[in-house]
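Most newcomers find our protein records easier to grasp once they have seen one. A record pairs a protein's sequence with a compact description of its fold. An example says more than a description, so a record of this kind follows:
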Amino acid sequence: MKNGIDRLLRDKDIRKKLYGKRVALVAHPASVTEDLTHSIDALVACDDIELTAAFGPQHGLKGDKQDNMVETPDEIDPDYNIPIFSLYGEVRRPTADSMETFDVILFDLQDLGCRIYTYLTTLRYMLEACAEHGKEFWVLDRPNPAGRPIEGLSLRPGWESFVGAAALPMRHGLTMAEMARYFVKECQLDVDLEIVAIDGWQPGLAPEFGWPANRIWINPSPNAPNVMMARAYAGTVMLEGTTLSEGRGTTRPLELFGAPDINTQAILKKMEQLAPDWMKGCTLRPCSFEPTFHKHVGQLCHGIQFHAEGPNYDHHAFRPWRLQSLAFKAIRLLQPDYPLWRDFPYEYEYDKLAIDVINGSTLLREWVDDAGAEPGDLEALTVADEITWREQIRDFVIYPE
């Protein structure tokens, strides 16, 4: 398998279209070649490419910024003396001045296949800026490690945000190049879009299901340490809008949840009573942990880890968004007054609850908080959204299963 960056570097015929043009790069720590050379270094080493600028998304080009609304400043690269523009600092859209530093931008970000992962919003913002300023936009494509499954409620109108680029379900099933094709059509963008596709990626191939076993994993953000997290993320990311720990401050962030004052065994029993089908496809293991930072720091938390790996993992049965929603529902039924929802500014949204911003509507929270609402009620809403999305993206898929 060859990612877009590797094909670009190996094929002079592809690079010919860049001759005589100023090239910029959107990158983060996982923007590497197959031998783990960072894309910036690899492009600079190409005599026929003139790299004049780079852009870093949330968490920074170096991936050193830990959490929500921790910003990165602009800088000058000390080795190559080119500007590094932050897309998560004073601005989240590229400025007119930064757009004047290049003719073609290469977008080379490893994604997780989840609507809330902000690299998706950065993709849309950069496409829109290139359309406005008459710049070429190239996607150097990479696999979606969560694979093709689609899951979750779609974002409702009026709920767009930096974690909600468009009316997508939580787990969208596309690569960045496929998503770029969708945005160009959906947003009616007049932009010169070039895709350097992955060669040899088979998203339905077992047992990798999206992430080839021979590719080394590099964190695309600080709390994305492995493929198991990428598989679970469409569910566990909702924990960021709750008072429950999502495992930040542990070695397995966003693969588990917990708190000092919940009963793990009771939660699992209640989940099994409510919707056993939503618990399929993975192994759920009661666990204890003590975060070294973030929520419940220094306190013993009781919780559950989602093991999206091993002999019990079923890629098509595992539905992390439903699974995490079910855990919320169980906690609410067991402890009706539990302070579940976290009230704090989330991705520059100050007047909405974080859980609603994350889900792109109030629907999930209202279902959890309604004592009379049953799993079938949420299932009916969600399945309709999933079917609609699958039909919407049919023409934008590049890689058949």
Notes: Residues 124 and 183 are 7 Å apart (CA to CA).
